[in-house]
Fold this protein.
Amino acid sequence: MENKLNRVLTILFAALFLLNAGYLLMGFASIPRYYERVTTLTIEPYPMFAASYLTNEQAAQNAVKHNMTLSQYAVTQVVYHSIIVLLCMTVALLIVLRAGWNWFAWYSAFLLIFIAEFAFYDQVFVARLLPLAVYEVGALFWPLMLLYFFLFPNGKAVPRRVLWLIAPVLLLHFGFQTTAFLALVFPDVVPASALDFIVAPFQVGISFVFIFILGCQVYRYLRVSTREERQQTKWFLFGFVFFISLSAISEALGSLNPFADEVGLLIFVFVPLSIGIAILRYRLWDIDILIRRTVTYTLVVGLLAALYFGSVILLQQIFASVLGDRSEVLTVLSTLVIAALFVPLRNRVQNEIDKRFNRKKYDAQKIMEKFSRTVRDETDIDTLTNELVNVVQETMQPRSVSLWLKKEKGGK
């Protein structure tokens, strides 16, 4: 029964993968007409409820904001979005090549392709090679993204009883997406005003459901997941946290960043990429090392940046009367000091992180350092033998340890 269900789900998500891959191919086919209509400002208007489609006015404003001509703006958008789509497609195809009859792998590949579609949103709308209703059907798949986050990383519901709570929420989500789709495509049948009173409560409700799913993931990680599944979860959370952090920085820059939309889309790529790495083979990359180094270098760069700007401002105040306006001398001196402090500060921060969050590895390193000093200074073979056995016991913690020394010829 389980094998049959696995095959059915595999076929289902393989079909969804191929369907959405077709949408992406239409996106590539839309590029020539997109370029023509953007450069000539002949984009046809299409008023729809709560839609954010590109207009002639927006295209002209975006070109000015980016300090580009319409032609340069159109080419830049095409190249940028194509790179993101090709990146997601590559990861998805790598998963498909290894998927076999693993339905959750096909689910992951479909999700990557589904996310990539939104990079071609403007191109598809402007070109309009097919009726927009054909493309808007993809909005019905959004509940599958929420379900994926709950089932990650192995496709099993944890805790299992929570599925009875998640299932009705997904059905409500699907019902809302269906109503929104009908309001967008058939406004005479389903008026847009029908959504006015439910959009805000729906968004708030989905946010709470997402937080609840994150709580389920924490429970899964602490109580159920195997070592491999924990590594996969770390990869996913690493990409998601990276996305949230960089998005907050991008939003904080506001008007200072004319490429905010492009940066936002690029940042979101970290989520599908982290999912792809987790599904493919996490052993190719040590996520623990990556997290440790990310935290280390973030702290080091932050401390050095504060020290650098603080020293420049402070030294300027102290030596202003002596050096006058020659602030470049202070800048050079501060830069040299920061360069000299980088390596020792990095080592100190890394040791503190290991001491507090990776204690076992930190203790093992200290034991190995002590053993290396003993080997350098000690000449007695019995002392060295006992020290080696102690090191193996403390660092690797095997059930038993035995050491065999080969005697030289002649009985020595």
Remarks:
- The chain has 17 helices and no strands.
- Residues 282-287 have pLDDT under 50 and may be disordered.
- Residues 287-323 form the longest helix (37 residues).
